[in-house]
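Cross-posting from the chemistry board since nobody answered there.

I work mostly on the small-molecule side, so proteins are not my area. We synthesized zinc ion and want a rough idea of how it might sit in this target. Sequence and SMILES are below. Is it possible to get a predicted 3D structure of the two together?
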Amino acid sequence: MTSIPLVYSPFYSYSFPANHRFPMSKFHHLYQCLDAQGVIKNNNVFRPGRVKAEVLALAHDDDYINRFENNLLSTKELRKMGLPWSEPLVKRSMISPNGTLMTGSIALNHGIACHLAGGTHHANYDHGRGYCIFNDLAVAAKSLIAQNKAKRILIFDCDVHQGDGTASILSDDEHIFTCSIHCEKNFPHHKATSDLDVGLPKGMNDAEYLIVVEETLYQAIQLSQPDLVFYDAGVDIYANDGLGYLNISTDGILARERLVLSTLKQHNLPVATVIGGGYDKDTPALAKRHALVFQAAQEIYS
Ligand SMILES: [Zn+2]
């Protein structure tokens, strides 16, 4: 059995206030979970370094980047961002966009690659929001287009919250198609306009949800004709997620991951996955839900 390429940095999780709603330890727990499941082998983990300044600037304002790096954001900006500023936060925030870029590059060569982070889709051009500082999806997609490694990219975002930052940053980018399937009555209350948006009612169950994902993915592929897909596999669609309002079971999440990845494989479309959102005080249990997309990738691609 061949192994799927993974992208991970040990700097993704760091010592963080335990009572904070953002589960900063989940990246480390996900690594441990994938290790225990045998998904991590001795030669399939790629480790990203800091993103280059000129790459980050493809999707973000220089002044915002500098002020974040140097702890010069206003109290209001920090409140919107939702995470306490610290040096380790800066470090992980500078690495993660490069991790998604690396995942996209590897996927183009290998058909699949999976990032153990990423999907910070609320980050906008000149401000952070909703636990998101830099928009790794926009940065990575813009960089691959600029390098001429891809001509058209689809960002298929299944996190329960709308990918408003991604939609906003990429609204005028004709090379990158944004698609978001989210719970309509959930954060962010003012939605941006993606190229294709599907707002779901609260309480939707597995069967209804999987039909929407299947139909929307086909539509997004037809409309975008991509040569690479970034898939945000947010697990905050889970019934008991701390910040989601859908009613999707663990089996439903695994079925979604199999559906999305097998469809993309049938279309011969390379896919780079990012983990997106997921909120639970029981971080190891949360990590198991994030591991489902890796499990599906392993089944389908190895
Ligand atoms: Zn989310």
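Reply from a structural biologist on the board:
Welcome over. Reading the output above for you: The domain at 23-301 is CATH 3.40.800.20 (Arginase; Chain A). Residues 159-161, 234, 236, 277 surround zinc ion (CB under 6 Å). Happy to explain the token format if needed.
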